[in-house]
Amino acid sequence: MTLTAPGLPPLSxxxxxxxxxxxxPYCDFNSHAVSGNLPESEYVSALLADLEQDLEYVxxxxxxxxxxxxxxxxxxxxxxxxxxxxxxxxxLPFASDIEITLEANPGTFEVEKFREFRDAxxxxxxxxxxxxxxxxxxxxxxxxxxxxxHFALDQIRATGFDNFNLDLMFGLPDQTLxxxxxxxxxxxxxxxxxxxxxxxxxxxxxVFYSRPPQLPEDDNxxxxxxxxxxxxxxxGLKRYEVSAYSQTGRQARHNRNYWEFGDYLGxxxxxxxxxxxxxxxEMLRTRKSKLPSIYLRADEKFTAEQHPIPQEDLALExxxxxxxxxxxxxESLFTARTGLPLASITQTLAALRRKGLLKPDRLATSDKGLxxxxxxxxxxxxxxxxxxxxxxxxx
Length: 395
Hints:
The protein is of the alpha/beta class. The protein has helices at residues 40-54, 78-91, 108-111, 114-119, 134-139, 146-158, 177-188, 207-210, 218-234, 253-259, 292-295, 314-322, 332-338, 346-354, 367-371, 373-378, and strands at 11-17, 19-20, 32-33, 63-70, 94-104, 124-130, 164-170, 194-199, 238-241, 244-246, 263-268, 272-276, 283-288, 303-308. The longest helix is centred in the middle third of the chain and has 17 residues, at 218-234.
């Protein structure tokens, strides 16, 4: 099969700051409980040196979005983040309407910094609430209380952030429908422009995996999800991705670039990236050194792994992303992003449409297909049994 060189997609930047106050028992991201003083200046210097090594992949594009995730990146001072953003813009251009998101936790020691974060150039916050129930927060290993969560959200509005996301979980240990809806009602009192509402899952290499809590039965979780989707729709939050809901015009630009198979640089300990090479159309996946102690060594290369995406995996990787969007995408985006002709997947598309799992004339699942998304994606596997899941943090 001949691969045509696609035009370059939009470019985003993910910045990973791996430290947090305490490792949550459900978390499988690259995060480490802080011990002693944070090496802020050293890490910012390393991030900028890391970015320098990746500048060859910019290829004339401006950044459309930046997402600073972790860990708990709001542990860093506003001054450090301001330096990071200022120096980043010196190295590559920012789009005039760039979206710059910072993950933040609602402890009062961080709320005091919200206004300074805005002054540093951050124009969107993603706040890890997870629950407004003190018992659940304790079970989840969160270091904030429900009172602190409410206070933080009041302060977000007071400090001028009109664009923010709330992270909220459902399917929590012993959670009932009423308690799940109480959590949603609490979140909706703040009229969030964006809500990431996702099911707690037990991941390998976590405390919950070795000592699993008692989670609700599948039927109860399905009941919670159906009721929640309806409640959010009534509040004006449309489900546009598997676990993302937004007001009109407030979809997360950064995560949307992931789902539409755009390019993104990843800098920081353990950060992943995906870039397209102009001319050849080859796509590379990159991963940076995972351990902060290794990442911070000045004599080490930051990239721990780099490999092209095999041509036979491109269709699956594209569909794994775009089919998370409830509206999917136009069929033309498949060739634009992968360089593959649509004819390479027409038989699979036709079979899925006959089963009522895909919408006609568009790369999007039906309501039924979204419920069986893993089965739909399985049809694009080159070899049954392959596991090519991509994990992206909430928006």
